């Protein structure tokens, strides 16, 4: 993930989802056999750098995925609504899907949804969302995986 996206995510967590932020630090600190206070006493920018560094470790992928899902569900609702509306996926008005996700994604709706996201949001944020969304199905969706591999706009840098 691009450092500016990580900073955006963790600043949002720290301001809007304080308990999630504390839990993330506590979980990662415990895994490193540290006390959370060791991290929380650092300046915020150093806390965020520490979080980003530790979440980039493969053994913390599940924690990373959980935090990204929380950030998108609670902090990037406009993006989820845009995607779900364009894909015609029923949701609660805030982007939380009401039923099961579809087993397949219609190619033309998917293209329109991807274009709508890139038109409305930062490219690296859109790219990250599409990667995270693709994790919601076992092995992802074939057509979305193809877009992630081939669309020149997709970049996590």
What does this structure look like?
With 157 residues, the protein is an all-alpha fold. 68% of the residues lie in helices and 0% in strands. The longest helix is centred in the middle third of the chain and has 15 residues. The termini are close together.
Structural class: mainly alpha
Weakly predicted, low-confidence segments: none
Which bin fits the share of residues in helices?
55-70%
User: How many domains, as an integer?
Assistant: 2
Overall mean pLDDT stands at 93
Terminal Cα span: 6 Å
Note the main attributes of this structure.
0% strand; single chain; 9 helices
Summarize the structure in short.
This protein is mainly α and 157 residues long. The protein has nine helices and no strands.
SSE layout:
Elements: H1 3-16, H2 18-31, H3 36-40, H4 44-55, H5 61-75, H6 77-87, H7 107-120, H8 123-134, H9 142-150
Helix pairs in contact: 1-2, 1-4, 6-7
């Amino acid at each position: 993930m691009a450092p500016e996206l990580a900073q955006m995510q963790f600043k949002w967590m720290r301001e809007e989802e304080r308990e999630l932020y504390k839990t993330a630090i506590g979980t990662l600190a415990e895994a490193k056999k540290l006390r959370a206070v060791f991290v929380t006493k650092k300046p915020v920018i150093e806390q965020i750098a520490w979080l980003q560094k530790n979440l980039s470790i493969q053994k913390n992928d599940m924690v990373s995925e959980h935090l990204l899902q929380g950030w998108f569900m609670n902090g990037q609702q406009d993006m989820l609504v845009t995607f779900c509306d364009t894909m015609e996926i029923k949701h609660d008005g805030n982007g939380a899907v009401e039923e099961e996700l579809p087993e397949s994604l219609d190619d033309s709706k998917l293209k329109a949804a991807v274009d709508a996201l890139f038109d409305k949001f930062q490219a690296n944020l859109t790219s990250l969302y599409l990667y995270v969304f693709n994790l919601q199905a076992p092995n992802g969706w074939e057509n979305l995986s193809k877009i992630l591999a081939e669309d020149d706009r997709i970049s996590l840098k």
